[in-house]
Amino acid sequence: MSNDLQEFDFSKFQAEAIKQLKSGKPLNGKEGILTPLIKMILEAALDGEIESHLKTDSAKNRRNGRTSKIVRTDQSAFELETPRDRNSTFEPEIVKKRQTYLGDALDNKVIALYGLGMSYSDISKHLEELYGIDATLSGVTDKILPVVKQWQARPLEAVYPFVWMDAIHYKTREDGKVVQTASYTILGVNQRGYKEVLGIYMSEAEGANFWLQVLSDLSNRGVKDILIACIDGLKGFPDAINTIFPETEIQLCIIHQIRNSLKYIASKDQKTFLKDLKKVYQAATKALAESKLIELDETWGKKYPIVIKSWKANWDNLSNYFKYPLDIRRIIYTTNVIEGFHRQLRKVTKTKGAFATENALLKLIYLAVQKISEKWTQPLRNWGQTISQLAIFFEGRLLLDIDVKG
Questions:
Q1: What's one Pfam family the UniProt record gives for this protein (predicted)?
Q2: pTM, whole model, 2 decimals?
Q3: What does the DSSP assignment read for 54-96?
Q4: Which run of H or of E encompasses 329?
Q5: For residue 347, how far is the Cα from the chain centroid?
């Protein structure tokens, strides 16, 4: 799909669609609100393609009007205008020169639009008369549900050096009511150093019990070992992980711990407290960090006992990163990797209020995952050195007959 599709003015379309709906204009039919949508998008994409072609064409070339053709779907047809160039070297990709039948290609374009985050309410309702297709938008996008289910159940690799686990929360509708839905994300790094979303799971709320089910599913799909799991401070989470993967090392997110601490620190003390706390988590060694934690207790323990108690209670799982070289420390001491991934998801889902169903949410997240992961074409920085170090720290637990780059 052409990148120019992403420049389609959805906001303008939405405003016009709402205006026409209020005036009584139908969604479907030859003069329906949705009728010009696919035509507009295809022609905008074709314009983008020819502009790109003209920039790269070594011979002097320019636009030379348009040519019209009837493009057919399964049950109907519409007129599509394709731009031409003077030298006749332009070969469009989205709808090829001699292509007059779209078939499933039209459905794929609608699905792609949905995956770009177009408001579901804008183009839902019915497509049964849009170019003669007897279907609703949800009916079209539902075609990916079997693909989603297959992706959720796909076999996984036996060993993942790093795995981040976190949940992102949305609103969905259930029995006419808006409810909170947690989307659980498992993001891993395989032994070749590439990021991979291992799974997306849906539940009403985040909790250690559901995470236990998620981890059981990973095991059933072939995961035998996780070296280091990076998580937030959800109560019971480490126990849930170690129930399924008893040898996995837990690294609690330092940033989450800091944020939770600041909730109990008076605003006038926060700057000074953070300066003292930084000496703990940025220490060169675990021994030095523990010494600075004692000093933190001596300075702030009486005024903020709950904060110091939390650091001491979680210290074993907070301090694991100190044993590793700096490159590994940077990877595991926070859950920034998965939080960055969730920020990208929100760019796609932010136009939504409450999703009509949990499946509607799942479809969009899946499509967004596929789009985001297209950019994961390189292993993590210095991965060759990192995997060699991990092989020493976790002797015998890695499969070393793999092609490692970086």
A1: Transposase_mut
A2: 0.68
A3: HHH-SS---EEEEEEEEEE-SS-EEEEEEEEETTS----SSS-
A4: helix 326-332
A5: 9
The whole-angstrom separation of Cα 48 and Cα 54 is 10
CB 167 within 8 A of CB 365: no
CB 292: neighbour CB atoms within 10 A? Answer: 18
Side-chain-side CA neighbours of 329 within 13 Å: the count stands at 16
Phi/psi class of residue 21: alpha, beta or left (left: φ > 0; alpha: ψ in -120 to 50)?
A: alpha
Helices (H), 236-318: 237-244, 254-262, 267-281, 286-300, 305-313, 315-318
Domain boundaries, the chain: 3-147, 156-393
Give yes or no for a contact between 29 and 35, defined as CB atoms under 8 angstroms apart.
yes
Whether 195 contacts 262, CB under 8 Å: no
Both structure tokens of 190: 């395989």
Tell me how far apart the alpha carbons of residues 373 and 214 are, in angstroms, rounded to a whole number.
21
pLDDT, greater one: 171 or 76: 171
- Asked whether the beta carbons of 119 and 349 are under 8 A apart, the reply is no
Torsion of CA 354, 355, 356, 361, to 10 degrees: -160
- Residue 117, classed as helix, strand or coil, is coil
Nearest 10 degrees: Cα torsion 15, 20, 26, 27: -10
Hey, which of 10-24, 114-128, 365-379 has the most confident mean pLDDT?
Answer: 365-379
d(C-alpha 176, C-alpha 197), whole Å: 32
Give the Cβ contact number of residue 221 at 10 Å.
15
For all residues of the chain together, what is the average pLDDT?
81
Q: Looking at this protein, which amino acid is placed at residue 28? A: N
Q: Does residue 352 or residue 62 have the better pLDDT?
A: 62
Nearest of 201, 210, 211 to residue 231 by alpha carbon: 211
Contact present, 167 and 358 (Cβ < 8 Å): no
In a 13 Å sphere around the CA of 395, the CA atoms on its Cβ side amount to 1
Contact criterion met (CB below 8 Å) for 124 and 137: yes
The C-alpha angle 244, 245, 250, rounded to 5 degrees, equals 120
CA angle 75, 80, 84 (to 5 degrees): 150
Helices (H), 9-128: 10-22, 35-56, 104-115, 120-123
